[in-house]
Write a structure and sequence with these properties.
Largest sheet: 5 strands, antiparallel
Radius of gyration: 16 Å
Helix content: 10-25%
Strand order of the largest sheet: 3-4-10-5-8
Number of strands: 10
Shape: globular
Strand content: 15-25%
Length: 201
């Protein structure tokens, strides 16, 4: 299995990586887990987990999702500046980006919150995946249920290896405990709304 680790972080992101690493370490210890325990649960190597905890690796969003699921927390818990809004309304220009970066610097898939924060009972995301986006090397499996609605483009959703091809206007609902992954094998960006209940990301 391969693990996607981005290029070395620019100075502007070093503080964020250090913060994320400190949170991973603190949450792991809080749960009484060793590096080996977290590695076994997530499928990530102990060396990668150690590098992330020390702020020496720039992990992909998929890798952070694996860590979050292994720690049984929402991915958004890793990021600073993701406090819940006091308003029930989320303006399109004010969505929180779960990657902890600006839309302009994402480059790959975009994961933005449509719900006010990361502590509610449900979570809705605006997800844009470019052609070639593929998480098959890191299948997800966690508690809860998921719903997806495709706004534009196409995407393959794999449930325990079974491919479900979704196009504009299609939707899918499934137990998050089923190993699942996603792939955009097509020539256009896929835009979708994804809902997790209870809160998973």
């Amino acid at each position: 299995m391969t693990t996607e680790i981005s290029a070395p972080a620019a100075p502007a992101t070093s503080e964020l990586l250090t913060t994320v690493g400190n949170k991973v370490r603190a949450m792991r210890k809080e749960k009484g887990m060793t590096l080996a325990d977290l590695s076994e649960i997530t499928g990530l190597s102990p060396a990668i987990v150690s590098q992330i905890e020390r702020g020496l690796a720039n992990p992909s969003f998929t890798t952070l999702a694996q860590l979050a699921h292994g720690l049984d927390i929402p991915v958004g818990k890793f990021f600073i500046g993701q406090e819940a809004s006091k308003s029930p309304v989320v303006r399109s220009s004010e969505r929180k980006n779960l990657k902890g970066v600006t839309r302009e610097s994402v480059g790959g898939a975009v994961h933005e919150l449509l719900t006010p924060g990361v502590n509610g009972g449900i979570e809705a995301q605006w997800i844009m995946t470019p052609p070639g986006h593929d998480t098959s090397s890191t299948p997800f499996s966690h508690s809860g249920e998921e719903f997806c609605y495709i706004i534009s483009g196409r995407k393959d959703v794999f449930l325990d290896g079974v491919r479900h091809t979704l196009g504009e206007g299609d939707s899918i609902t499934y137990s998050s405990e089923i190993p699942h992954w996603y792939k955009n094998s097509y020539e256009e960006v896929c835009v979708a709304i994804w809902v997790n209940a209870p809160h998973a990301w």
